[in-house]
Amino acid sequence: MYKQGLQPDEVTVGIVIQTYKAAGQVGKAEQFFKTWSSGNFGGEKHHSLYPYNALIDTYGKTGQFKEASETFDRMLSEGIVPNTVTFNTMIHICGNHGRMEEVASLMTKMEDLHCSPDTRTYNILISLHAKDNNIDEAASYFRKMKAAGLEPDMVSYRTLLYAFSLRHMVTEAEAMLIEMDKRGLEVDEHTQSAMTRMYVDVGMLEQSWSWFERFHIKGEMSSECYSANIDAFGERGHLLEAEKGFLYCQELMKLTVMEFNVMIKAYGVGKEYNKACELFNDMENYGISPDRCTYNTLIQILSTADLPHRATAYVREMQEAGLVDDCAPYSAVISSFAKLGELPMAEDLFKEMVFNGVQPDIVVFGILVNAFAEVGSLREAMDYVKAMNCAGFAGNSVIYNSLMKLYTKVGYLQEAEETYKLLQISDDGANVYSSNCMIDLYSERTMVGHAEEIFESLKQRGEANEFSFAMMLCMYKKIGQLDQASRIANEMNELGLLTDVLSFSNVIGLYALDGKLKEAVATFRQMIDSSVLPDDSTFRSLGVVLIKCGVSKEAVCKLELARREDTQCGLNAWMRALSSVVGRMML
């Protein structure tokens, strides 16, 4: 055209820009527009709306918010008045980039230019405000659309109905449905399943089933819609409804792997593990092969249910089917074995995984390191740390915390200090668990200053917990600093950190040692009132209290014998004896 002296008009320019957009060549579209608008094709500069709309739309479709905004501003500066299409595009772009203030500004500008919103404008606004979790504003635009004399279309109703469903706004959703029914508008499958889920989630099971049957009876539900509805029932443990939905789908010969997947998942939620396995094994009878999701779902269910031996069989079957593409299924079962303390089985499955060419990730290594740390097996844990490093994985906070647990169990202070430093400089930082491990190690060695430094740091961050305080109390008690120990005990009480039998026993033991007998008895009463059952350590300390108050050792032994024969009667006897001596002390 250029060689023949022909100038492209705005329609031609728009088509070229749209073509470049479809081909993903935004740069060429931009360059073409600049050449045309500057008059370089011959003739004067062009100031036409259509090509601007096309370019703004191109920027919007490719996520180039800045460029779209600049083009819009340039258009205004050149005196080109935007139309409804322009505003719709800009509102959509701004909203998708979270610029809701700019959306409001565009609406004001639209009003100033006497450019009337159309149905698409309102639909965009409803959708954007719903996504922004401003459902009231979304609903207000639906009302404004009607007030402006525009009739909401299918998109208007479906968008708002879906938003109401997600937020469990039953009254509003049902009012919207009445309107749709009056106008003969159909609910799409995506919204239909969302409505089922809404009813289920708010406990309206009867309504949810009626709603599901309304669409089932029509006979037009797709397999995807059946699976979504079955899942809605199954996720909340309504197995009867999920099974009936599955049977409906089966009767219509619409069963696919999706229905099996959600039904197996439902059995997992309902702890019907045998049924989950039976359904999986029945898939062949329907000519349906399990997919990756089927295997992963069943393996996860069995592993979580502490049934790793059964899960292992399905992992091997999945491997033979060529559906294992990462170590996740192995990881789930290894974790289950580790949780049950069956470490040889966990190791064997790990070796089998590697033999099958499945690369372990840092999660699997973390599971094994933690499992051996839990039982204090230093050599095995460190072997997996080395294997992890050889596989190219650097340690993370999970690994480091497992090592802190291990080093604390075996008493390796230097290694714990080195690991603690790594935690301190990590993204997550040293948490209360690792800090407590260090306090524990320092306390055992009466390294008071080091323990105090970490303890004070925890307190400043508001992270010191009951265990932190209890260890400091025991350390001060151990080195004879009873005043400091009593200060810690008072802090624990003030902060509400006396909840565990060990903490109560430590405080009672401290008061008994320090001669604060009334405080010891008061703490014991607090313990009973808190429904915390005392243990042998508690009664040993209380025995010291009674003996210091003049009760004979023989009498204390009788109290202890009575407790062992009948826990409740014995506890009452201890309470009477303690109340008696405290009463004498008050005189």
Automatic annotation (TrEMBL):
Signal peptide (UniProt feature, chain positions): none
Keyword annotations from UniProtKB, A to Z: Repeat
InterPro entries to which the protein is assigned, alphabetical: Mito_RNA-Proc/Resp, PPR_rpt, TPR-like_helical_dom_sf
GO molecular function: mRNA binding
PPR repeat boundaries on the chain: 48-82, 83-117, 118-152, 153-187, 256-290, 291-325, 326-360, 465-499, 500-534
Pfam families in UniProt: PPR, PPR_2
Name this polypeptide is given: Pentatricopeptide repeat-containing protein
Upper lineage: Eukaryota, Viridiplantae, Streptophyta, Embryophyta, Tracheophyta
